[in-house]
Amino acid sequence: MGLFSFIKDAGAKIFGGKTSAEEAAEAAANKEAAIKEANDQAASKLKETISDLDLKAENLQISITGDTATVSGKAYDQTTKEKIILVVGNSTGIGVVNDQMEVENNEPEAQFHTVVSGDTLSKIAKKYYGNAMKYPEIFEANKPMLSDPDKIYPGQVLRIPALDS
What we know:
Pfam family, one: LysM
Helix content: 25-40%
Shape: elongated
Strand order of the largest sheet: 1-2-3
Subcellular location: Cytoplasm
Protein name: Potassium binding protein Kbp
Order of helices and strands: HEEHEEHHE
CATH topology of the largest domain: Alpha-Beta Plaits
Keywords: Coiled coil, Cytoplasm
Organism: Galbibacter marinus
């Protein structure tokens, strides 16, 4: 008497089922397909949101792999491109935006600011412009993603455009 060790996935399939290795491979394939489907749905929802915000880009394409979203297409101007990137990047689950967009009409690029606890648009304006009363510039630069200058949150990324001279 005693215990005998065997390799459970080797040998004849007496019970007609799949080996645990085959089941694991099938489960992995199903999981991968489910993740791809979820990423495709998220990308589609982002495109819909961008359209709802009236941000237009020719041939806009968004693909998501892991926490990285790749965005391509042609925006009318730099402002529209940056707003599209912010819509995508400020979405749950997205940690990196791979910008592959082109711009039809070039203009200066804005700076980006990641909101931290305690930030207000006035504090941010003071930091970048030297004048807290310039906060409406930042608010306007982030419309329509911002609907109220008092509703920003830690982790959110905002556009900080250069001031017109």
